[in-house]
Amino acid sequence: MCFYYALSVTAQTLENRYQLTEGFDWEVEAGPWTPKYYVSGFEFPKMPVITNEAPDRLQFLTWGLIPFWVKAPAQAAQIRGKTLNARAETVLEKPSFRQAVQRRRCLVPADGFYEWRLFQGKKYPYYIFLKDRTVFSFAGIWEEWADPTTGELFRTYSILTTEANPLLARIHNTKKRMPVILPREQERAWLSAGLSTAELLSFLQPFPAAQMEAYTIGRLITARTANRNCPEVQAPVVYPELGEGQ
Fold first, then answer.
1. Cα–Cα distance between 134 and 123 in angstroms, integer?
2. How far apart, in whole angstroms, are the C-alpha atoms of residue 83 and residue 142?
3. DSSP assignment, residue 225?
4. What pTM, to 2 d.p., does this model score?
5. So what's the pLDDT on residue 32?
6. What does the alpha-carbon distance between residue 20 and residue 57 come to, in Å, rounded to a whole number?
7. 3-state DSSP call for residue 183?
8. What are the tens digits of pLDDT across the range 115-163?
9. What is the biggest distance separating any 2 CA atoms in the chain, rounded to whole angstroms?
10. How far apart are alpha carbons 111 and 120 in whole angstroms?
11. Catalytic residue at 2?
12. Are 65 and 106 spatial neighbours (Cβ–Cβ below 8 Å)?
């Protein structure tokens, strides 16, 4: 699964990474950007994504997909906590996701994410990233939903997940899942129109473990009364009970 991630880079780094041709005024459109060391899906944050609708600019969408067919705000509030992720194996079948994956796909920038390993009855947090420490893209889907009581338009997204590669299977050793990370050369193709079912599924594969790294971090990430949006949340911590290699 993927409920927590990081985008701990500057606005300029993000713009340079995606080489977007349409201008983006952070102050006007999104407010001042600060690096996000810890983002929780359960807080339903607005985060930068790149959609197939506007592939040459950043847009801020809310994490937690609200399907277009939702009837009322109460239903929207209930369902979005269950749609932070969409499973690759069922995304083309589930009513919440099947239209979005066919028509509304997006890139979700990140430079790392968090997962927990179960060991002898205790959970240990890990920070996971690419070996070259660059920004990468989760495969995402997005939706638009209009609140029938106010007319307000909500634009939301979900991150796709797939079976874990060997690295993530060792860490996320209960459900053995991982987010779909798109190879850089496939990012634009994911946004292309008219993809067949076979083509869509071809993107939803485990990212190579050989290109990823992970290490154990401290318990700050689970300290609800502390500020977790800080560099210290990513600091390595060694747990002797886990042995060598953590």
1. 27
2. 11
3. T
4. 0.96
5. 86
6. 6
7. coil
8. 999 999 999 999 999 999 999 999 999 999 999 999 999 999 999 999 9
9. 57
10. 30
11. yes
12. no
Distance CA 170, CA 127 (A): 13
The single residue of 2, 106, 143, 187 carrying the catalytic annotation is: 2
DSSP 208: P
CB 104 within 8 A of CB 135: no
> How far are the Cα atoms of 8, 42, 104, 134, 138 from residue 141, in angstroms, in the given order?
22, 17, 6, 22, 10
Topology, domain 4-242: hypothetical protein yedk fold (3.90.1680)
Total length of the chain: 246
Nearest to 65 by CA among 55, 54, 51: 51
Identify the CA nearest to 67 among candidates 76, 55, 54, 56.
76
The amino acid that residue 4 corresponds to is Y
State yes or no: is 115 an active-site residue. Answer: yes
Closest CA to 112 of 243, 235, 226, 204: 235
- Distances 106 to 42, 63, 157, 191 between C-alpha atoms, Å: 20, 12, 8, 6
Comparing C-alpha atoms, which of 164, 158, 23, 194 is closest to residue 82? 158
* pLDDT surpasses 70 at 74: yes
Give the active site residue among 27, 43, 115, 199.
Answer: 115
Q: Is a pLDDT exceeding 80 seen at residue 1? A: no
- Tell me the β-bridge partners of 113: 5, 128
Classify strands 59-63 and 4-7 as parallel, antiparallel or unpaired.
unpaired
Q: And the tokens for 226?
A: 């502390």
Report in angstroms the alpha-carbon separations of 29 from 24, 46, 104, 120, 130: 7, 12, 21, 47, 29
